[in-house]
Amino acid sequence: MTTIEHITLDVADPTTAGRFYSALGLDERVRVRASDAPASGFSGFTLSLVVSQPSTVDALVGAALEAGAKELKPASKSLWGYGGTVEAPDGTVVTVASSSKKDTGPATRQVDEIVLQLGVDDVAASKQFYVDHGLSVAKSFGRKYVEFETGAVKLTLNKRKALAKVVGVDPDGSGSHRIAVGGAAGPFIDPDGFAWEND
């Protein structure tokens, strides 16, 4: 199985970004490095933190806001569970969600799963590209959504506009994606310009 061990974000201010991801307990899986690569608008991806219950969502969203994030969607109940969305100081869109609508214990800041959601132009073409590069499909829903078995950081493919709509941002953006995926499959650049580097 091809795995993703970490992701690296290209940021203008590594110190501030590093503090933000440390506040969420993501030091091991999210790295930052200085970059002045031009970019504007939506970078075409989100980081999703999956947690066990609503109070943990609230705890992590609160920690994100204290560490300099901007609220995009307040945490609330939905058909699928409970979650909220913030924009990190470096511009990365981060969602925190739980499939549970009720607490079963005290709040923690435990992240159960990190999901890298890529917004792509053609889900089927990108799926085939990744399969050809050794990734195993875990779930697939036609041309709308694909989930891969990638270990520590889960990878999903979504239509770019649909992903932007879900997290509450304008889908337009240009320039660098400001991210590199670290795993054994790289190095390569996928059809949408997302870069992979050797772990």
From TrEMBL:
Transmembrane segments: none annotated. It comes from the Bacteria. InterPro entries: Glyas_Bleomycin-R_OHBP_Dase (IPR029068). GO terms for molecular function: lyase activity. Keywords: Lyase. PANTHER family: BLR2520 PROTEIN (PTHR36503:SF1). This is Putative lactoylglutathione lyase. It comes from Jiangella mangrovi.
